[in-house]
Design brief:
Elements: E1 2-10, E2 20-23, E3 29-33, H1 42-52, E4 73-81, E5 84-92, E6 96-101, E7 104-105, H2 112-124, H3 128-135, E8 136-138, H4 150-160, H5 164-210, H6 216-251, H7 254-287, H8 300-377, H9 384-421, H10 426-448, E9 454-457, E10 463-466, E11 472-473, H11 480-501, E12 508-512, H12 521-533, E13 538-542, H13 546-549, E14 555-562, E15 565-569
Parallel strand pairs: 3-13, 3-14, 8-12, 12-13
Antiparallel strand pairs: 1-2, 1-4, 4-5, 5-6, 6-7, 9-10, 10-11, 14-15
């Protein structure tokens, strides 16, 4: 369990050179109040910045530095995991990123990216997206679980269930699998070469053993045959090399197409993001006649123009996405063809190597024949060296074959392990086990907030919602207040699951202005019933409704502005 204890910051957003420090584990419930712009939500940004080098809200990194002092931005966050005490210090102007374990600075030889990856993978055991799903529910820059893309939903649940390690293991095994595949190809090639050399040497040895003083003419015939074979091998090598050169011309485009595929993938994500934004805008104008912020009626002409405009933009984006997907498919087809060409080049290179080996062996063989002719002329025969070479070649061949068998078996084991570690293997079995528990908890929390629907997540984390009349709905069919109840139920569920798994479990829960938007009075009362049932939790609620919520909290923090700087005021 991660127990967040204390956070301190200065020259951070509207906070000046006088530090603000907040204890995170002393009060079961804390209400944070203050006027608009007083700096209430700075707590969220400071925590996210300390842990993930990014604020919670959509604020550019250079805007984090206090605009008046313009330097020395420092955020310090202290927390414990088990018996280990951690402290993170992160700053801008100058840049600073330090991780302390039990007051000792961890090695900083790695790059800042690797240092951040170590923090997320080895210490926190969760990334930014998973962190905000179990710790923060905010009205700004918060993307509820139900609005995440399916693969991002899966990432969150995998981290909560502490099974993303299977994915990391799969990546390592994939690299081993590739290396073993290459080794198998190399060993097969080596075995073919050694076997070919052995056969040639064996043939040579047998001829020497059977030769006599009168077979000089026979050997001259062999030399002539060797010459013809040598010319044929040289011709083959030339043909192979020309074919390789032709293929390499087209393979020059492989990197270009790979980069294009990557760019198209990024563009696809960008279009999907824009499409989602315009759909939300369309949904807003379809479902609202008054502005939820200022409560004024929306001009009908404006509403009509907006509906027409957003529908047109969505249509254009859908059409653009279709065209983009078509281009992605065409690009992937070209890449697959080029990969096939690359494979063919590799096969040709193997043929060239085999032919060169045969050329080398034939030259050696021919040289040996010349020597034998001279030896025959001097009535000398000696097959001792050839016998030794044969014995050594036989040993080399046996060793290569044993190594090939060993590596092939090792690759077979890794193939099986990868089957177990992929999304349809062990992870799917674990998720399948926990899905009923998740659905039970979600529905219990929904009922606790007087929202009586049947909410069901399948193994791909797609939702099915049924009302009392068994009508089917999805998340986007509900009002903002009902969506907020679902979001709250999911947050409480992920925290409960994390507590069971002891993975992303933490003492901290921060709710930003949820009482100021879509939660009605009854929903507020039901929500506090759930909060009172939680134990060993430190809950922070940011709200404008301080006057009606004072009696429900054990601690109250008030932010205020003085001379354009945020400070804490005693309550």
């Amino acid at each position: 369990m991660i127990v967040f204890k204390k956070i301190k910051w200065k020259n951070f957003l509207s906070t000046g050179n006088t530090p603000i420090e907040i204890a995170l584990n002393t009060a079961p419930s804390t209400l944070i109040i203050g006027t608009n712009g007083a700096g209430k939500s700075t707590l969220l940004d400071a925590i996210c910045f300390a842990l993930f080098n990014r604020p919670f809200r959509s604020i550019k990194k250079e805007q984090i530095v206090n605009s008046i002092n313009d330097a020395d931005t420092i955020v310090t966050l202290e927390f414990s995991i088990g018996t280990k005490e951690y402290k993170i210090i992160r700053g801008i102007k100058p840049t600073l990123f330090e991780i302390y374990l039990d007051d000792k600075l961890l090695n900083q030889d790695a790059s800042s990216v690797d240092y951040q990856r170590y923090l997320e993978n080895n210490i926190l055991r969760l990334n930014y997206r998973s962190f905000v799903q179990v710790v923060i529910l905010g009205s700004s820059s918060y993307e509820p679980f139900m609005r995440l893309r399916p693969r991002h939903r899966r990432e969150v649940v995998e981290e909560i269930l502490d099974i993303r390690v299977f994915g990391n293991m799969d990546v390592l095994l994939r690299n081993q699998q590739t290396a073993l595949t290459d080794s198998i190809v190399d060993l097969k090639h080596k075995c073919d070469i050694v076997e070919s050399k052995y056969e040639l040497e064996q043939k040579h040895f047998n001829e020497i053993q059977n030769r006599n003083i009168n077979d000089k003419d026979v050997k001259k015939v062999i030399l002539e045959e060797n010459k013809k074979s040598l010319e044929k091998y040289i011709e083959d090598v030339d043909t192979y090399n020309k074919e390789i050169d032709q293929h390499n011309i087209s393979l020059k485009e492989l990197d270009t197409y790979n980069k294009k595929a990557n760019q198209l993938s990024k563009l696809e994500a960008k279009i999907e993001t824009n499409l989602l934004k315009h759909k939300r805008t369309l949904e807003f104008f379809q479902n609202n006649d008054t502005c939820p912020e200022c409560t004024q009626n929306i001009n009908l002409s404006l509403k009509s123009d907006k509906l027409t405009s957003e529908t047109s933009k969505i249509s254009k984006l859908d059409e653009g996405l279709k065209q983009l997907l078509s281009e992605i498919i065409e690009t992937e087809t070209v890449i697959n063809n080029l990969n096939a060409t690359s494979q063919k080049v590799n096969e040709l290179l193997v043929k060239v190597a085999k032919a060169n080996t045969s050329i080398e062996a034939l030259k050696k063989y021919s040289d040996s024949i010349h020597s034998e002719i001279l030896s025959l002329e001097n009535k000398q025969t000696d097959g001792k060296n050839i016998q030794e070479q044969l014995n050594q070649l036989k040993i080399d061949l046996e060793l290569s074959k044993k190594e090939l068998i060993r590596i092939t078996e090792e690759k077979q084991y890794i193939d099986v392990l990868r089957e177990l570690l992929n999304d349809k293997g062990a992870k799917a079995m674990i998720i399948k086990k926990y899905i009923p528990i998740m659905n039970t908890l979600i529905n219990q929390y929904l009922q606790s907030m007087d929202f009586f629907v049947s909410f069901h997540l399948d193994e791909e984390f797609n939702e099915t919602v049924k009302s009392r009349h068994r009508d089917n709905f999805d998340y986007n069919n509900f009002s903002e207040g009902e969506k907020l109840r679902i979001d709250l139920a999911l947050v409480f569920t992920w925290r409960a699951i994390a507590k069971i798994k002891n993975s992303a479990h933490t003492n901290l829960l921060i709710l930003d202005e949820i009482f100021d938007s879509s939660l009605d009075g009854q929903g507020t009362d039901d929500f506090f019933k759930i909060l009172r049932s939680l134990t060993k939790e430190n809950i922070f609620i940011i709200s404008h409704k301080g006057d009606i919520l004072f009696d429900k909290f054990t601690n109250i923090i008030k932010f205020e502005k003085e001379h354009n700087f945020t400070r804490l005021q005693n309550v």
